[in-house]
Amino acid sequence: MATEDAKTNGDGSCLQQIEPVVKDYAWGIRGMDSRVARYALENKAVDEVDPDTPYAELWIGTHPKGPAKLKGTGESLREVIGDDLPFLFKVLSAGKALSIQAHPDKDIAQRLHDENPNAYGDANHKPEMAIALTPFEAMCGFRRLEEVSLLVKKHPEFAACISQEAKLAVFLASDHESQKEALRKLFRSFMSCDPKVSERNLKLLLIRLQAEQSNLHKHPHDEPAWERKCARAILRLSQQFPGDPGAMSPLFLNYLLIAPGESFFMAANEPHAYVAGEIIECMACSDNVVRAGLTPKFKDVKNLVDMLTYSMGGPTIEAGTPLSHNGKIIRYTPPVPEFEVIMISVTPSDTIEYKNPGVPSILIVLEGAGTIDGTKVRPGESFYWPANSQSLSLAVAEDRRGKMKLAVAHKNCHIDSPTTINRQDFGSSSHNVTVPSSPMPYMGMPSPSALNQVEMRDSTIASHSLPSLG
Question: ∠ CA 7-14-370 to the nearest 5 degrees?
């Protein structure tokens, strides 16, 4: 490798290379197709890449489940800093869906840790922000109740997994609080449905959706694009997790497509499940996850149902805020104090002098080749940048064909000017916040008011005879 273990500025301060920790989970991307695997190999976190291993996460931080260390000396990053970082920086490569999950707030995290320290290893909350490196798919937050009501009527198999009380609450809810309570009842009812009932109805739903999505269907486009997208998501999830009723979760969770460079923030106690693609992710220093579906791991349905806020609408999709007039330095700032992320793009023949933020920082090269303080760096290399070090000189030679992209994570230095909003602000018009009411607002999803006027076809669908599974 062309990189030295420590890059020294003129005054003796150092940019110190880190050896991160690689995690392989069933949902990761296999072999060298995984960005996590390539970065791990570049950092010598692995000696070689196994083509059959699903490389899922690269951890860069001080969390005890994956403590990074300095390359060369072997010292833990925590020892060098003298304390834990308030954040954990990750690279994720998702080849299939992660579990339906939420991260607890501090009070709930403390209680879960006290009650079950084996499942919940720390007492910290875990708000998180994702920035897409590739096109990224995710389920985030509950759909608007108007959408859920439409889908309950359209899909009798889904309706069969929900109690009459919950369905009545969904159809009759009027104000914001009654809508949240209706979502709570629906989610609780669905998650506690008799497995035999939910599995049988999932099979029936899949048979019908497969027929409707086939070329033999008389009217393959006789529905809005967002509904087709929802159906295809169900079919895809059912292939990844055969027999898991969680495959029906796109019927009540927003299904989002995130473009490279776009980001979203997930506050505590909000349901989500990443589906596919690669991101960098920054979060408070915690590994607490409460799961309820699409996973063979420990499921804690009761705690998940009880802890959610039942806010409606997906997270806002943001592209950050420029820190430079030419847009080459972009700030992604969540409404929490633990972290923010700065993305830097250096084009051929350019040099950027980037000032130290005054707090301990983590830097990773995401793509392209260039130099930092005159020393060559490559994609995947990650570094610790001590507080109050000198500025970094980031450059790309004129003869290079592409830009170098880097990400810097540190404690939030712009907490008063977040680029994302808190999910607690969703669901209310009083905040003057524009929130998409559909998974892809530019793909034909009608507004909530228009949804009330959509002519339902559930009676026609229900009358279709379905083959016996007996």
Answer: 35
What is residue 211's three-state secondary structure? helix
The Cβ-side half-sphere exposure at 387, using a 13 Å CA radius, reads 11
pLDDT at residue 220 in the model = 54
pLDDT in tens, 147-175: 999 999 999 999 999 999 999 999 999 99
Active site residues: 291
Counting residues of the chain whose pLDDT is more than 90, the rounded percentage is: 76
Contact predicate 272/246, CB 8 Å:
no
Q: In what order do the strands lie in the sheet with 392-395?
A: 351-354, 392-395, 370-372, 375-377
pLDDT at 408 > cutoff 70 = yes
Smallest CA-to-CA distance from 277 within 139, 132, 102 is with 132
Distances (CA, A) of 325 to 34, 108, 125: 34, 42, 35
Query: What CA–CA distance (Å, rounded) separates 357 from 377?
Result: 21
- The whole-angstrom separation of Cα 17 and Cα 12 is 15
Q: Residue holding tokens 């196994």?
A: 50
DSSP class of residue 174? -
pLDDT value of residue 148: 96
Name the nearest CA neighbour of 89 among 317, 343, 321.
Answer: 343
For 153, other C-beta atoms within 10 Å of its C-beta total 20
Which is nearest to 383 in space by CA: 373, 396, 397, 368? 373
Residue range 217-246, pLDDT digits in tens? 555 556 788 888 899 999 999 999 999 999
Helix H, strand E, coil C: the string for 4-33 is CCEEECCCCCEEEEEECEEEEEEEEEEHHH
- Residue 298 corresponds to which tokens in the numbers above? 């420990």
C-alpha–C-alpha distance, residues 263 and 266, integer Å: 10
Do the Cβ atoms of 269 and 102 come closer than 8 Å? Answer: yes
- Residue 250 has a pLDDT of 96
Q: Report d(CA 254, CA 272) in Å as an integer.
A: 9
What is the spatial distance between Cα 318 and Cα 126, in angstroms, rounded to a whole number? Answer: 20
Per the model's pLDDT, the better-predicted residue between 223 and 12 turns out to be 223
Confidence of residue 3 (pLDDT cuts 50, 70, 90): very low
Residue 226 DSSP symbol? H
Written as one string, the DSSP assignment of 130-150 is: EEESS-EEEEEEEPPHHHHHH
Q: Would you say residue 324 has pLDDT above 50?
A: yes
Task: Identify the DSSP state of 338.
Answer: S
CB 291 within 8 A of CB 271: no
Q: What pLDDT is recorded for position 134? A: 97
How many Å separate Cα 173 from the centre of its chain?
A: 30
Cβ–Cβ < 8 Å for 106, 122: no
Residue whose tokens read 């030419």: 326
* Per-residue model confidence (pLDDT) at position 444: 33
